[in-house]
Amino acid sequence: MPQDPVSGSHCLVVNTEQTVDVGRSIDIAYERFGDPGAPAVLLIQGLNMQLVNWDTEFCGELVARGLQVIRFDNRDIGRSTHLSEAPTPDFPAALAGDVSSASYTLSDMAADGIGLLDALGIDGAHVAGVSLGGQIAQTMAIEYPDRVRSLTSISTTTGDPAVGQPRPDTWGQLAGPPPVNREEAMDQAVASLRVAGSPGFPLDEAAVRERAGRAYDRALPDRVGLMRQALASIASGDRTPLLRKLDLPTLVIHGADDPIVDVSGGRATAAAVPGAELMVVDGMGHDLPRELWSEIAARIAGLVERNR
Q1: pTM exceeding 0.90
Q2: What separation in angstroms does the CA of 111 have from each of 29, 129, 145, 213?
């Protein structure tokens, strides 16, 4: 089993955590693992999720297959730039069709990822995103086809409101005030995964608590930043027609039991992208169970080989 990149030699830390200017007054915090000459995999997290939510052991699985891994904080989360001076998002108006309160769109978040590749001197990368990160990854593939070598779209959807909707009352069960301390942040992370996680796989509560604690230590929760990220998705519309024009190796992974983004979102993504491979996992919810890390890493490595 690959060692933890933080402490083990198998997953070499090429750079400890750094922050780089990617343009447009945005700084992005990132970590980079593996041989810098190896094919690059850019990992993009979901709504309100920091780079540490890509588990270091999963990064190690990719490095063990001859890849370098870059994980980063999106804007408005973790140690990347928070747009604290931006207008407060108006969600009722957005849901009614008025997205004028959006401070940015998925295109801006995709440009952040490309800016990070530019700063690292990487011409092209294999892009993998989960949930909101999957939407950003799709947007990168659509808008920067010369920079994205393959696409892995996990637990996400196309932007078509007819697919990928959450189960009724799921968001209501997850809603609540931001944590007031580290212990509460860890408790909330466990409680959230009991609602949104994978019913067919054991919940590693100790690992969930450790990651949530690390995230809390890195940066305090930003509830308005979360709202800005969510509104970026709403404001970006349906990508289906543009996904149909993609021409690159694509893997779509989705849990059959995902209560946050219904599996119809993953099926619609795979149907839209020509030649996409669809992996629907029974018992998987809106997370990546440890038991799947090796297979997912192997499939991403397979996309790299197909691109070659």
Answers
A1: yes
A2: 15, 14, 13, 29
